[in-house]
Amino acid sequence: MDLLLSDVEVSEGTTEITETTFRNHRLISSIKIPDSVLVIGERAFADCVNLKTIELPDSIMAIGKYAFANCINLESLSIPPNIKTIEEGVFEDCASLQSVSLSDSISAIKDRAFANCTGIKQLELPDNLISCAATSFPNSPKYLSINKNYKYENGMMINTANSMLLFYSGEKKDITVPAEVKGIAFRAFYGTHMQSVRIPEGVISISEEAFANCGEHVKVVLPESMEFIENSAFDSKVDILCKKGSYAENWCRHNPDYHQLLDEEF
């Protein structure tokens, strides 16, 4: 017996779509959302397995984690211009998703945002990404032909428009960051278990958890050009190598959990 699928229009005046509103509604094929909606909550449409189309108005300010996870028949979507971050797992397991339009306002894509979206044929990345997890989407290199400001080299994904190293997903244990890089993004080397990373002169910033969960006694060489390091940038097991009198040495002195060595010892 064929399922009787339905088209749904959310009532005008609604401001938030919560987890309990549509999650696991298996008879919905399309949804139209009014301009009054500002927030789509976590897992709001998760497991709506027959959902094929949804219209998201420009009024939406936030889309929660796993909001469309396992919408296995969802084919395309345009992200509203007020969205700044694609949260964790938002489109995970949307295997039929072929086209995604990301607005230029987006600066971060979190873990597993497009995981297992193996049907994606076109994914245009915004030029101003400053954070993008290695697990964000499958087969990162295949999208680079339509994303001229991005390159994948020696396992490193780099946004050449703003010189950010977004993530490392390679297998080498000893890594030298390319000279063109100016910043190390959020969780860029998270959980990669290297032996050493040499960061060149010219890099000025390291973001949160960039070297967290990397194993014991990973050696990271910091340049004299460093100007800002987030307090959570390093796991306490990381050995930091830097020059005397540098910003990096001063940072280590104010963060006694970190083992600071002289660069010459590397």
Mean pLDDT: 88
Unreliable segments of 5+ consecutive residues: none
The amount of beta strand, in percent, is 25-35%
Question: How large, in whole angstroms, is the Cα Rg?
Answer: 21 Å
Trace the largest sheet across and list its strands. Answer: 13-14-15-17-19-21
Taken from the alpha-carbon principal axes, the silhouette is elongated
Portion of residues in helices?
under 10%
Please count the helical segments.
2
Largest sheet: 6 strands, mixed
Extended strand count:
23
Q: What string, H for helix and E for strand, traces the elements in order?
A: EEHEEEEEEEEEEEEEEEEEEEEHE
Helix/strand-derived category reads: mainly beta
Describe this structure in words.
This protein is mainly beta and 266 residues long. The protein is elongated, with a radius of gyration of 21 Å. Strand 14 and strand 15 (164-168) form a beta hairpin. Strands 13-14-15-17-19-21 form a 6-stranded mixed β-sheet, covered by helices on one side. It contains 2 helices and 23 strands.
In short:
This protein has 266 residues and is mainly beta.
Note the main attributes of this structure.
4% helix; 266 residues; 26% strand; six-stranded mixed beta sheet; mainly beta
